[in-house]
Design the sequence.
């Protein structure tokens, strides 16, 4: 790390830990850098990214999956996942986001019980390293909390180091009345141990005990975890629920300045590992709050584009693209080496907080009703007033794309493909959720067994069943994957679809279509999307370019002659270029 970075790190640490024994953060900085210096991009794991100058390009796409989404008897989950991805989904897996793989006790792995050991059914660290061969991995740093079974919590209850300073202890008090909540459970939970009962913060639930980030021991612990992950192929880190990490009386306890400073610190530490590292913030909040982690240019490299899934879902279900077009027309201008992670489906529900200020309550209600008619459920959070309000929609993306009429499968494939192709046409890095790529419907069996609403969209598949599914030419996944693979191949060779290429919306005043123009490196590409179940007409002269030249569709190879009125099939997508 160059001296200016070291000075920046020391200053940040001095702000976050003013009572640290080193005074100016120099000793703590040296400890952190020493921990991270044991890893480098030239270590045991060789990746394509280690040889790149850019952090991302048109080849990059993220595959989101649990370590045990693919189950093969007697085979550790990471090994089964690697085998399946290498056989069938290699183009989607330049980066694989393996959702929490450390030992945990609940919440789909997000109640982490150990920072050193993987869940046994997933395999071990060597299996993670094997999955990283030829690609990069993204892993979660669950920053806000750990499981009540984590050693830090157990040490806290025994009043032993280092855990005694790592857990956030507090009790109900009017000074916490403005705290923003992502859940409807109690904010505080009483734990009992050998030293008696103690009241702790539990922002996300009673088994997820909040950490005291005012203790430098917490930062040191996560630095050791980052080092261990980096040695086994992790180059991208996802900062889970980072907005909640710092608590201050008489505030909302979300997005406080110290939370932003912590992101800066983690980015500097990741830079110590290698030049190809990417910090991704996960803040399921209103849009401007989410973008606040990108605006300065020295915090996150990428942020989840949370308004995109609900807006795209609403447009696809309603056939009205006015809200989506209006939002796309205000696409943020971000600093260099920052961008958005574009996705439709993920392991969580479809967040509704990002719609605040973007969608009327009437249309939101229609969206919720439409998703419930397709088998989805709605989860809620609690306001400081005690009122519960909708927080997310729990539904598989494939089920969400079903028709609302008599035949759910009517135009379902077309609607689904439109949404997946659109995220490939947007500035930023696209991400796909493995169950969505496999056209998995709501997992009612799993939900009935666990009672957890998010389990509607967290299915598991046996390796044998997946092989049979993909060998069946009539299966939905067999029809969808070749189209998306063709699109990925085209995106990789067209400079206009580079993640950093500017975008202009040519359909800002349209209700029925979304037309995006991307330009970069002397190339222009126009992505046309019919957002309705009806056939539309398209006049090429309104796309710009040379009015006397034909347009070629990169996705189908079809050539559109100039000076003609062309037809757009329901939910059709065309990527048009001129010679």
Sequence:
């Amino acid at each position: 790390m160059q001296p200016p970075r070291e000075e920046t790190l020391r200053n940040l640490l001095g702000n976050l830990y003013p009572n640290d024994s080193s005074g100016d953060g120099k000793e703590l900085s040296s400890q952190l850098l020493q921990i991270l210096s044991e890893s480098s991009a030239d270590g045991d794991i060789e990746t394509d990214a280690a040889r790149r100058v850019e952090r991302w390009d048109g080849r990059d796409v993220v595959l989101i999956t649990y370590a045990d989404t693919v189950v093969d008897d007697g085979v550790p989950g990471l090994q089964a996942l690697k085998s399946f991805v290498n056989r069938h989904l290699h183009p989607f897996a330049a980066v694989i986001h393996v959702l929490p793989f450390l030992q945990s006790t609940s919440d789909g792995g997000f109640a982490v019980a150990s920072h050193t050991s993987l869940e046994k059914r997933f395999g071990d660290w060597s299996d993670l390293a094997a999955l990283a061969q030829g690609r990069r991995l993204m892993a979660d740093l669950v920053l806000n909390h750990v499981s009540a079974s984590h050693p830090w919590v157990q040490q806290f209850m025994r009043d032993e180091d280092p855990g005694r300073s790592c857990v956030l202890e507090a009790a109900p008090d009017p000074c916490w009345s403005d705290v923003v909540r992502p859940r409807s459970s109690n904010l505080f939970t009483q734990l009992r141990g050998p030293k008696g009962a103690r009241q702790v913060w539990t922002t996300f639930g009673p088994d997820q005990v909040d950490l005291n980030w005012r203790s430098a021991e917490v930062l040191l612990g996560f630095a050791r975890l980052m080092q261990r992950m980096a040695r086994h192929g992790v180059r991208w880190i996802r900062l889970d629920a980072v907005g909640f990490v710092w608590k201050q009386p008489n505030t909302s306890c979300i997005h406080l300045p110290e939370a932003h400073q912590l992101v800066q610190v983690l980015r500097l530490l990741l830079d110590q590992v290698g030049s190809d590292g990417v910090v991704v913030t996960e803040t399921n909040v209103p849009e401007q709050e989410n973008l606040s982690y990108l605006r300065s240019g020295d915090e996150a490299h990428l942020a989840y584009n949370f308004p995109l899934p609900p807006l795209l879902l609403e447009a696809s279900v309603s056939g009205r693209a006015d809200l989506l077009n209006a939002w796309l027309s205000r696409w943020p201008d971000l600093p260099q080496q920052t961008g958005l992670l574009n996705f439709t489906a993920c392991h969580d529900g479809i967040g509704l907080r990002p719609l605040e200020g973007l969608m009327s309550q009437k249309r939101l209600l229609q969206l919720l009703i439409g998703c419930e008619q397709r088998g989805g459920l709605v989860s809620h959070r609690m306001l400081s007033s005690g009122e519960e309000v909708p927080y997310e929609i729990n539904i598989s993306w494939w089920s969400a794309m079903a028709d609302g009429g008599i035949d759910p499968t009517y135009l379902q494939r077309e609607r689904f493909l439109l949404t997946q192709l659109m995220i490939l046409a947007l500035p930023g890095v696209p991400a796909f959720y493995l169950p969505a790529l496999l056209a998995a419907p709501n997992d009612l069996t799993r939900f009935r067994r666990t009672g957890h609403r998010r389990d509607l969209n967290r299915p598991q598949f046996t390796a044998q069943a997946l092989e049979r599914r993909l060998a069946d030419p009539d299966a939905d996944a067999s029809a969808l994957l070749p189209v998306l693979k063709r699109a990925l191949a085209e995106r990789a060779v067209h400079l206009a679809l580079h993640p950093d290429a500017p975008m202009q919306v040519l359909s800002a005043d349209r209700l029925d279509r979304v037309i995006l123009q991307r330009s970069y490196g002397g190339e222009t590409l126009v992505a046309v999307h019919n957002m309705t179940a009806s056939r539309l007409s398209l006049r090429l002269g309104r796309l710009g370019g040379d009015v006397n030249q034909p347009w070629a569709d990169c996705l189908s190879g079809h050539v559109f002659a100039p000076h003609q009125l062309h037809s757009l099939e329901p939910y059709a997508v065309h990527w048009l270029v001129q010679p």
In short: The radius of gyration is 24 Å. Residues 41-52 have pLDDT under 50 and may be disordered.
